[in-house]
Amino acid sequence: LRMSHIDFMDDTNTVMRHKFLKNWNDDRDALVYPPSSGRYSVYTGADIVDQFAFVVYYSIQDDSFASFSYDTLKDQGIRTPVSIDDPRLQKTWHIAVDDIPPMEFCINRIANVTVYNNTYEFDVTEIHDCVLLKFTEKEVKEIRKNSSVLRELLKERHITFRPEDALIISKGILKFSLRTIHFSPVSTDQRPECYRIDVSVIFDNSRHTGQVYIYLSTVISYVTLCSGRVLHGGGIFLVSIIIFIIDMLVLLMCIASFVLCCRALLRAHLLKLVSFSLTSFSGGGVFLVSIIIFIIDMLVLLMCIASFILCCRALLRAHLLKLVTMEFVETVLKRKLSLSDRLEFLNLWYLMIVTNDIFIILGTLCKITIEFRFK
Question: Which pLDDT does position 29 carry in this prediction?
Answer without folding.
Answer: 81
